């Protein structure tokens, strides 16, 4: 049995070509119809703005006219779906703050806004006349020829003096009218491919100007960055929750247990076996309480939340087994920035104590020119490599979420310097 007999056979290719021709024709004709009022609106707005600029009122109007490309670009990106199945992505970013002022400020800085304005002017001056000419040649002329019988009937029939469809030749009989209609239909079919090709090229130009590939790439990278930022924010929120639960829950229970054991020691006779066991239990409870406090401090130090990064850096330096000189003069910064910088400093000081053999280290931190800059240096043996699993790779990834950078300079023989930079703004004061 030959399975090919029951295999589905591909259908004829003409339905797809007909659909493409119809959609291409709709794209070209709609472009011509949009361009005419667009030219009138731009010319009228420019004239009114220039005339009113003599009394200063026209300057805001001219500024708004510069944004005329934004709605036109959005409409054109939607119109390209007549030719391209996949929608054209928007090149615009979402404002960080709500309100019209933030939207206008962002749109004025974006290159996409000025590309859309250039495309709007190009469409109003060049593209719509070209669309109109192509539509007239590929659709208008064949349709006028195809409608020759109807034209002849409206003119009174063969005895009415005849008609000239599309001003090409005289038609005064029914056979001539039918022959002209056949010529129009054949010409319409023959010009369908050039029309489709022009529509595809025209839509490609629109997409290239209004939705360039780099804009799509930037949009995807921005979404990845935002998703990573959301993950970091969720991680920080979970860190704060764990710290709060340990501080308010387990730590308070251990404090109560230590106090209860102390009271029990007072009730037990001194020097007896029970007193010794209670003393041992209280010492274990105190040790567990100390370890829990260190764990809470490692999760999120209270000094960072209460006093900021400068005080937290001083605290980390005091806890370091290697003497550390600190020079940190900082305003309060956003919480994610302070947290990322603090843990980077703490990891750097831990690496100094474990691997460098240094006798002294230094931490210098400043906020200037819209960025936090922290430098951790030591006089150790050098040769540090972040790729060897010192924990700095994870810190670099964490800083990258905040658009920050981490640089390590550690030649053999030293010294070693770790520099981090995070663009940010000072946190608003309460």
UniProtKB/TrEMBL annotation:
Span of domain Signal transduction histidine kinase subgroup 3 dimerisation and phosphoacceptor: 238-304
Histidine kinase/HSP90-like ATPase domain residues: 340-424
Reactions this protein catalyses: ATP + protein L-histidine = ADP + protein N-phospho-L-histidine
Superkingdom in the source lineage: Bacteria
Pfam families reported in the protein's UniProt record: HATPase_c, HisKA_3, Sensor
Membrane spanning residue stretches: 26-48, 54-75, 117-145, 174-200
InterPro entries, sorted: HATPase_C_sf, HATPase_dom, Put_sensor_dom, Sensor_HK_TwoCompSys, Sig_transdc_His_kin_sub3_dim/P
Ranges for domain Putative sensor: 27-210
GO MF term set: ATP binding; phosphorelay sensor kinase activity; protein dimerization activity
Sorted UniProt keywords: ATP-binding, Kinase, Membrane, Nucleotide-binding, Phosphoprotein, Transferase, Transmembrane, Transmembrane helix, Two-component regulatory system
EC annotation from Swiss-Prot or TrEMBL: 2.7.13.3
Enzyme class: transferase
One GO cellular component term: membrane
Xref: PANTHER family: NITRATE/NITRITE SENSOR PROTEIN NARX-RELATED (PTHR24421), NITRATE_NITRITE SENSOR PROTEIN NARQ (PTHR24421:SF10)
Stated name of the protein: histidine kinase
Species this chain originates from: Streptomyces longispororuber
């Amino acid at each position: 049995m030959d399975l090919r007999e029951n295999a589905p056979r591909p259908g004829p290719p003409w339905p797809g070509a007909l659909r493409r021709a119809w959609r291409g024709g709709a794209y070209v004709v709609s472009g011509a119809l949009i361009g005419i009022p667009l030219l009138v609106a731009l010319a009228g707005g420019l004239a009114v703005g220039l005339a009113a600029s003599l009394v200063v009122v026209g300057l805001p109007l001219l500024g708004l006219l510069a944004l005329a490309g934004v709605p036109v670009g959005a409409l054109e990106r939607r119109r390209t779906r007549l030719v391209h199945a996949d929608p054209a992505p928007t090149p615009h970013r979402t404002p960080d703050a709500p309100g019209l002022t933030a939207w206008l400020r962002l749109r004025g800085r974006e290159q996409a806004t000025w590309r859309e304005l250039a495309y709007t002017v190009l469409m109003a001056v060049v593209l719509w006349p070209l669309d109109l000419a192509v539509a007239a040649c590929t659709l208008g002329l064949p349709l006028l020829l195809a409608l020759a019988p109807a034209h002849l009937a409206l003119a009174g029939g063969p005895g009415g003096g005849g008609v000239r469809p599309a001003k090409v030749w005289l038609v005064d009989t029914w056979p001539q009218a039918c022959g002209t209609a056949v010529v129009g239909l054949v010409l319409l079919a023959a010009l369908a491919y050039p029309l489709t090709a022009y529509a595809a090229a025209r839509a490609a130009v629109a997409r290239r100007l209004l939705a360039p590939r780099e804009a799509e790439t930037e949009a995807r990278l921005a979404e990845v960055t935002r998703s990573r930022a959301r993950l970091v924010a969720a991680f920080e929120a979970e860190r704060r929750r764990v710290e709060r639960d340990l501080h308010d829950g387990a730590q308070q229970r251990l404090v109560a247990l230590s106090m209860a054991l102390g009271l029990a020691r007072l009730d037990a006779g001194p020097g007896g076996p029970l007193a010794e066991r209670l003393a041992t239990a209280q010492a274990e409870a105190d040790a567990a309480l100390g370890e829990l406090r260190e764990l809470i401090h490692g999760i999120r130090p209270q000094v960072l939340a209460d006093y900021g990064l400068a005080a937290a850096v001083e605290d980390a330096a005091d806890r370091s087994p290697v003497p550390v000189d600190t020079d940190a003069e900082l305003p309060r910064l956003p919480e994610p920035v302070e947290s990322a910088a603090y843990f980077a400093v703490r990891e750097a000081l831990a690496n100094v104590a474990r691997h460098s053999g240094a006798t002294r280290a230094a931490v210098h931190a400043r906020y200037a020119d819209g960025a936090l800059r922290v430098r951790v240096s030591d006089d150790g043996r050098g040769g540090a490599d972040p790729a060897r699993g010192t924990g700095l790779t994870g810190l670099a990834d964490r800083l990258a979420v905040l658009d920050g950078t981490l640089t390590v300079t550690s030649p053999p023989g030293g010294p070693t310097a770790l520099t981090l930079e995070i663009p940010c703004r000072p946190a608003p004061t309460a």
